[in-house]
Amino acid sequence: MIPLTKTIFLPKPRGFCAGVIRAIDIVDIALERLGRPVYVRKEIVHNRFVVDRLAARGAVFVESLDEVPDGAITIFSAHGVAPHVWEEARARKLRIIDATCPLVTKVHIEVIRYARQNYSIILIGHRNHDEVIGTLGEAPNAVHLVSSAADVDALENVQADRVIYVTQTTLSLDDTQAIVERLKQRFPAIVSPPSSDICYATQNRQTAVKVLAEKADLILVVGAQNSSNSNRLVEVARNAGTAAYLIATARDISGEWLEGCFSVGVTAGASAPEILVLEVLENLRLLGFTRVEELEIIGEDVHFPLPAPLDKFDRVVS
Ligand code: SF4
Predict the structure, then answer these.
(1) Which protein residue's CA is at the shortest distance from atom 8 of ligand 1?
(2) Cis peptide before 11, with omega less than 30 degrees from 0?
(3) How far apart are CA 20 and CA 23, in angstroms?
(4) Residue 64 carries which DSSP code?
(5) DSSP letters along 102-135, please?
(6) Does the CA dihedral 52-53-57-63 come out positive or negative?
(7) Does ligand 1 have an atom closer than 6 angstroms to the CB of 229?
(8) What angle (nearest 5°) sits at the alpha carbon of residue 202, between those of residues 207 and 273?
(9) DSSP 288
(10) Using a 6 Å cutoff on CB, does residue 20 contact ligand 1?
(11) C-alpha torsion 267→270→273→275, nearest 10
């Protein structure tokens, strides 16, 4: 009998999206052109490896603007910020470079537009996620946050005849659909966003994981614990009936997971760099998974331009 070759399935797309590439490029270019230090409010993207690399180059990551000296160059992360953060930055004369993903900005603009028209706005998202905090901050009196169908049932003070929903960009498509169905039952006149707020990268990676789940015994998702889209990939795989785990690095792989496994799917969240995927492949190779099959599931060709010239600021002498 010919022994089965243990196989790794590697889908495309996986890993970095256009918004993450742009945000990281902004920090790299700012360091190159403007010199150290460059302050970054919050993790530029939710990945420790990325943050540590940029910190080693001279980026200073802070949780709040209080930690930034007056007038310093400060970058806002890909997740976006609430207007009060902009106001504080202007008052402190910080020199801001905004790395908010344009697809997050799209949701902010929807909230601003409908709040001005006096709509009730239902934001589907995860409480305390950086992106949700920023979006909510655009119209805190008009926005109602929901994370589940039960939250929809508990909603109060919503104008049933003047209501719209928007979503966080990195949600599970299937879970969100269930919440939207409940919203439509409760508020038949609810307006949908002109196009899905769940971004192309989130949608494509979830579609790819569903294909992976049909082929692999186990799925490993490379991504950070606080990465929303990475967590959703694990959920999508499990909902499709395949065992799946979130791993920050190759070191997190447990031998137990691989017992009886002949095929492993390896993917990565939108903020996880490819080098971490390559380390996982090497680790799996050492554990006997010697064949790699690439699966081209969806083509991606999305690029976002950099924000207004990064060199409009004077160089900072460190
Ligand atoms: S996951 Fe989507 S919304 Fe988030 S940075 Fe990437 S492209 Fe933008």
Answers:
(1) 19
(2) no
(3) 5
(4) S
(5) HHHHHHHHHHHHHHHTT-EEEEES-TT-HHHHHH
(6) negative
(7) yes
(8) 105
(9) T
(10) yes
(11) 10
Residue 305 is given by DSSP the state P
- Rounded Cα gap, residues 38 and 5, in angstroms: 49
The answer, as to whether pTM is greater than 0.85, is yes
Distance 239 CA to ligand 1 centre (A): 23
| Cα of 16 from ligand 1 centre, angstroms | 9
Q: What is the full per-residue pLDDT of the chain (318 aa) written as tens digits?
A: 555 799 999 999 999 999 999 999 999 999 999 999 999 999 999 999 999 999 999 999 999 999 999 999 999 999 999 999 999 999 999 999 999 999 999 999 999 999 999 999 999 999 999 999 999 999 999 999 999 999 999 999 999 999 999 999 999 999 999 999 999 999 999 999 989 999 999 999 999 999 999 999 999 999 999 999 999 999 999 999 999 999 999 999 999 999 999 999 999 999 999 999 999 999 999 999 999 999 999 999 999 999 877 767 766 544
Residue 18 Cβ contacting ligand 1 at under 6 Å: yes
Residue of minimum CA distance from atom 7 in ligand 1: 19
- Tell the residue nearest (CA) to atom 5 of ligand 1: 19
Count CA within 13 A, CB hemisphere, residue 98: 16
Q: Which atom of ligand 1 is nearest to the CA of 19?
A: 5
Q: Which of 283, 62, 296, 78 is nearest to 169 (CA)?
A: 78
> Ligand 1, residues 22, 79, 98, 101: which to mutate, most atoms within 8 A of Cβ?
101
Q: Could you tell me the distance, in angstroms and rounded to a whole number, from the CA of residue 129 to the centre of ligand 1? A: 14
Instruction: Give the domains, in start order, of the chain with CATH numbers.
Output: 7-16+200-296 (3.40.1010.20), 18-100 (3.40.50.11270), 103-186 (3.40.1010.20)
Catalytic residues: 131
* Spatial distance between the Cα atoms of 154 and 122, rounded to a whole number of angstroms: 12
